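Prompt: Have a read of the protein record below and flag anything odd:
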Amino acid sequence: MKKILISCFVLLSCLSCSDQTVEVMPTDQLTNETVWSTPQNASLFLNDVYNSLNAGPWSSVFTNVPTEVSNDPLDNYSDNSVNGNLAGIPSYTLFANNTYGPNAQIFGPQWSRMYANIRKCNLFLEKVAVSSFDEATKKSMLAQARFLRAYFYTSLINLYGGVPLITKVLNRNAEEEINYPRNTYAECVTFVQEECTKAAADLPATIAGVDLGRVTKGAALALKGELELYAGKWADAAATNQQIMQLNVYELFADYGGLFYSANENNKEVIFDVQYAPNIKGHARDTYWGVTMLTNGLGWGSVNPTQNLVDDYEFLDGKTAAEGSAQYDPKNPYVNRDKRFAASILYDGTPWIGGQVIYTRLGIANNNNAFDASGSGGKNRTGYFLKKLLDPAVMPSRDNLNNATGGSNSIVFRYAEVLLNYAEAKNELSGPDQTVYDAMNKIRTRAGLPNLPTGLSQEQMRQRIRRERRVELAFEGKRLFDLWRWRIAPDVFSKPLKAMKIATVNGTLTYEVVNVGGGTIRFDPAKNYLMPIPQAVIDQNPKIVQNPGY
């Protein structure tokens, strides 16, 4: 799949060349006509569409990259983590203060970039559909483009609700043709369902070699199943996610933390990811999200996990501290935890890259990693740093930042989420039968936790699924959408975000839960379950109606 990242640049450089007056057919360039003349040429165009995939919405933050490789990922817009107290960070300056709107965008480039990608897909679908390519090649190409278009639409739907469904190449010079009104949310969901069903029918169950990273049947079904879950279409979501389970292609990767490393890319748990390659199409996530100070490195520490999240990691007896776990020791609160805790969060006393031990406690001289309640200057606001998704093979540094040396892929769909999606949909549809327990317990077994207690009611299972989902998918950009679709954001955000303050008193460490500096989120349920459509979009298209309240 890394080949796709390289070949798309060939296409971009070729199509950027101006026409020559001498009538000579160049052998090293692709014209608009020759792009569609052979499957090989057309595949370069398709590769460029793959290269446009976004891991999370496109952020307005000054790094101007998709959130999940930016310095302000989506979990910072939830109760899972916070960014440092820095000017210009949307999660801190706009989202938490509820000062965002049509002219103060958090995800400003998202609308225009996704519709530019959708236009590419529409053009590809039109040209390939009437091409003379053999039927097998044509089916494969069309199925991939259908998925990609559905993916781009879904990334709009999740933020804005109903959006204009445009399925043909528009004439930009004809105003009456390009100004489409918004379709309803229900119409958009149905469209994505139908597109994914069509794509899945013509996609392979597995791929290998240079095609790794391309769309598969499982990817199309995963996109469909997730949106069905978000839309509350329980029967559809249960059936679609069960289809993926019955493909017998995927399984949980044994090492929860390691499944995200570059060394383990394309493992059996990964269903679909956005591909990166160091220096070619790399990222600086390891520096953005990395520990502020290491012996040989320097990170931004822009993802500080909250105590609220930490409290949801069970102990090995299957209970949290609040539930009275017998394994909870208030003088040593980080032992005997769910395996995912140590794989996800750097807490005080954790060894990390280069063998350095990370200390967030107070009282150590010249320690820029120490907790600071104010968060001033971007200092750690919670007493925790992020570990999950950071590659220990990449040192957070200026080199990583300037040269984009990070190459770990951004996983969009993986098998653990499918199990969680199925469990939730099935429980909401008909209650907690054995298939719900089986799906949940597979995930818990990998985490070193006991099976769920039997005899749970539907509501009890609902709460267990929600906690399991939060912990399993932490820092993968899912929490904000879960809070929105469960309609629990006002309750969650009404509670202060918490931090852990560790100090040494008479030679003994003390642990005190305190409020995060500036750790409150203002949320208006009358409008904030959707993002505002950029004012520039509405100014250009009078048929677009703004979301309520903005």
Summary: Residues 12-25 have pLDDT under 50 and may be disordered.
